[in-house]
Design a protein that fits this description.
This protein is mainly α. It has six helices and no strands. The chain has a single domain (2-128), classed as N-(1-d-carboxylethyl)-l-norvaline Dehydrogenase, domain 2.
């Protein structure tokens, strides 16, 4: 379970932000605004995981997500590719999952809520075109 959650947290930090902004993975940490949102989304996910009793593999998950951004700098995340191809994304199973689990545990997840909603709006806009 901890490996799954560690991978989920990487996706929480990268996918929705790239889908919304159109940035490549590495570009997320080049802008103060997206880097801050990445950090906040990941911290919310960490709080949810810890409250659920899940021990994460990475001791510094925020630093790990940023390292993944560097290592995959030129990549378009799968969610960004979904947006570009006007397909439904997996937002409900990534950031949306953090939101739902947070609600169950009484943990507020405002950044993940906003990211989830923005991606869903983009999906609806893609349906109109």
């Amino acid at each position: 379970m901890s490996l799954i959650w560690s991978k989920l947290i990487v996706n929480v930090g990268i996918n929705a932000l790239t889908a919304i902004t159109g940035l490549l993975n590495g570009e997320l940490i080049e802008y103060t605004e997206t880097e801050e949102l990445l950090e906040l989304a990941v911290k919310e996910a960490i709080e949810v995981a810890k409250t659920k009793g899940i021990k994460l593999i990475n001791y510094e998950p925020v630093a790990h997500v940023k390292e993944v951004c560097k290592l995959t700098a030129a990549n378009k995340s799968s969610m960004l590719q979904d947006m570009l191809n006007k397909k439904k994304s997996e937002i409900d199973f990534i950031n949306g999952d953090i939101v739902r689990e947070g609600e169950k545990l009484g943990i507020q997840t405002p950044v993940n809520t906003v990211l989830t909603n923005l991606v869903k709006i983009k999906e609806k806009m893609n349906d109109r075109i």
